[in-house]
Design brief:
5 helices; mainly beta; single chain; six-stranded mixed sheet
Length: 635
């Protein structure tokens, strides 16, 4: 995945300016549903026991399939054309030869011998995530696609002697009609979406598949036993409705999140339940596993299934949330889904809202717990953070203005502001702080303890520090102005904050911010990389390399060169750069390595950097050979 749906949609919103979204009113439950809900709560309290006090819920499951049908058919009654026609675009929005030696002619230097390994960056420490290339320190696993089939390649890492030891062709499953699915290919990006993950002796591979209809997109997850690397064997597979969104793992429990983002409401009949009822392995989910939050938006639903990664890999639970809940944030205890509720032009509503749905995670169980709305949109994937029993959220509010002009449809954006919220574990609002940044767009957010850091970009391009230590009285403690902006922030040692972004001229930039005193922020050091105009961290936080032990950061970028010059040395070229950071030497580039590999006829801009022992590996997307990697000493 690249950036979050909210990040992309908010960008579309700012560009289009025109507002063409409608919202649903809140549902009114019948008396029978209330009775049913009471029974469910009582059963939950008996079955799951008490956790953090008495268990209560604000999100009822649906009472019948007819309730879901009414929701989807109601989209047509509202004539929300823009929402429905956008389905194809949203599908696309969800997607998302090797040289030797460095440009500077030196190997990466670290201060001590390295015997461990450093893999990909994670959104939440301790929560595993999938990608197209991963390592467990003993092996490197990559995915490639050829002839409309994915293949897992397993390498034994040994520096320049790295060799492939096993390959596993990933099959395409059969449907109930006996016909084999085909790989789903995004019509916009013209690429397949697949990732893998390793936990212990179990390899999980996910890929998107498509049935006989345009809307019939599913995600299949294969689980392999790789305890005997010479004879890997499939344990089982599961087919879950919808496009693949993310895979997360904690404590041996895997959570697969998918989104059906094109429910075919324009040709939907109530009896054709497989078109609008969430399904898993060919079976429709029961109503007790389907949630319809108030004000849900869009011809879509999100599914989450949990799997125990041991033995025969048994499913623990599954839940579906009706509506377009595209953004996912997971901690050890909870999984959060969020969506934007767009302002209703007919009612002249003046701003969009965000709705967050919280699912408690309890031994693989998914318990529909709480839901809440707030002003603004979570524009950064790091704009939501759980800390203890509190939840911190930072949104951007677009204020819409309505003109008395018969030729104008919708609204224009009059102003923007940044807003911070603090909630308790029951989603009770403790406080909010508005007007943090006027007429600025959020570029990056990062929480560190009880401090929140926000980078904006428009007029003054500042970095803000926000104090959440008193959740009932949030306050902005300082801000500094800077040229350009950081699109990704990462806390590192010695009270420093690392920023990756762009300089004013569009060149890639790496920065160090001193956060020793949050009342006196300062730019400690920054370096502009004048020949790199694109860096992949701004699209996907997983693509930054962070070696916390040795204070080294790395990322990939592209020098576009002179596209009109036919000479090879003047054409576009990919690079992977490594920087050492600390308070003594500040920022020092210690490696820059050319990595050029074409993928589907275009220069490949996706790289993962990983350190294993005393070697550093740069692995482009779709790597199937050792020759595709850039391998340099890391000693």
């Amino acid at each position: 995945m690249k950036m979050t749906e909210t990040e992309r949609l908010i960008g579309m919103r700012m560009e289009q300016v025109m507002l063409r979204r409608h919202r649903w009113g809140k549902k009114v439950l019948a008396g029978s549903v209330v009775i049913w809900l009471v029974l469910v709560i009582l059963l939950c309290s008996v079955f799951f026991g008490k956790r953090r006090g008495e268990y209560t819920t604000d999100i009822p499951c649906v009472s019948s399939y007819h309730e879901i049908y009414r929701y989807f058919s109601g989209l047509l009654e509202k004539q929300d054309r823009y929402m429905l026609e956008d389905g194809g675009n949203l599908t696309a929005l969800m997607k998302s030869s090797s040289s030797t030696g460095g440009v500077n002619g030196s190997a990466v230097q670290v201060g001590r011998s390295v015997e461990t390994y450093t893999s990909m960056n994670q959104r939440e420490k301790g929560i595993g995530e999938a990608d197209y290339a991963v390592t467990d320190g003993q092996w490197i696993y990559t995915l490639s696609s050829k002839k409309k089939q994915h293949t897992v390649h397993i390498f034994r890492p040994d520096g320049k002697k790295t060799q492939e030891v096993q390959s596993i062709p990933v099959p395409l499953p059969e449907g109930r009609d006996g016909k084999r699915y085909k790989l789903y290919r995004s019509p916009i990006w013209e690429e397949y979406n697949a990732e893998l993950y390793v936990s212990g002796n179990i390899l999980t591979v996910v890929e998107e598949i498509q049935g006989n209809f345009e809307w019939d997109i599913k995600t299949v997850a294969y689980f392999y036993d790789i305890s005997d690397m010479e004879h890997p064997k499939e344990i089982r597979h599961t087919i879950q409705n919808g496009n693949y969104n993310t895979l997360r793992e904690y404590d041996g429990m895997l959570y697969l999140v998918t989104q059906q983002i094109k429910v075919p409401v324009t040709a939907m009949k109530e009896e054709n339940k497989d078109r609008y009822i969430p399904g898993l392995d060919g079976e429709l989910l029961g109503t007790q596993n389907i949630i319809l939050p108030p004000d849900s938006d869009g011809n879509a639903y999100t599914m989450v299934s949990s799997w125990k990664l041991s033995g025969d890999v048994q499913r623990q639970d599954v839940k579906a949330v009706i509506g377009r809940y595209l953004d996912v944030y997971m901690t050890e205890s909870n999984l959060y889904l969020s969506t934007t509720l767009y302002a209703d032009t007919d009612k002249k509503e003046k701003y969009d809202q965000t709705r967050i749905v919280k699912l408690q995670l309890y031994q693989g169980r998914l318990i529909g717990d709480k839901t809440e709305t707030m002003q603004g949109t979570i524009t950064s994937s790091f704009g939501i953070q759980e800390r203890g029993d509190k939840l911190y959220v930072i949104t951007q509010i677009l204020h819409y203005q309505y003109e008395d002009d018969p030729d104008m449809i919708g609204a224009v954006i009059g102003s923007t502001e940044v807003c911070a919220y603090a909630f308790d574990e029951n989603f009770r609002l403790l406080s909010k702080r508005k007007n943090i940044a006027k007429d600025e767009d959020i570029k990056a957010v990062r929480f560190l303890g009880d401090m929140g850091y926000v980078v904006t970009y428009q007029q003054r391009d500042p970095l803000f520090s926000i104090d959440f230590s008193d959740p009932e009285k949030l306050k902005v403690v300082d801000k500094i102005e800077m040229p350009g902006f950081s699109g990704y922030l990462h806390p590192v040692k010695d009270d420093l904050l690392l920023g990756i972004g762009e300089a004013e001229d569009g060149n890639a930039k790496i920065s160090l911010y001193d956060i020793t005193d949050n009342n006196k922020l300062s730019i400690y050091d920054e370096k502009e990389i004048d020949h790199i105009k694109y860096n992949n961290v701004l699209e996907d936080y997983r693509k930054i390399f962070i070696d916390e032990e040795n204070n080294i950061a790395g990322f990939g970028g592209t020098d576009y060169g002179d596209s009109d010059d036919e000479k090879e040395e003047n054409r576009e070229q990919n690079y992977y750069v490594l920087y050492h950071y600390d308070r003594d030497g500040k920022l020092q580039q210690i490696g820059e390595y050319p990595v050029k590999k074409e993928y589907r006829g275009f220069i490949n801009q996706k790289f993962i950097g990983m350190r294993i022992g005393t070697w550093f590996y740069v692995i482009p997307e779709a790597t199937s050979r050792q020759e595709d990697m850039e391998i340099v000493p890391y000693s």
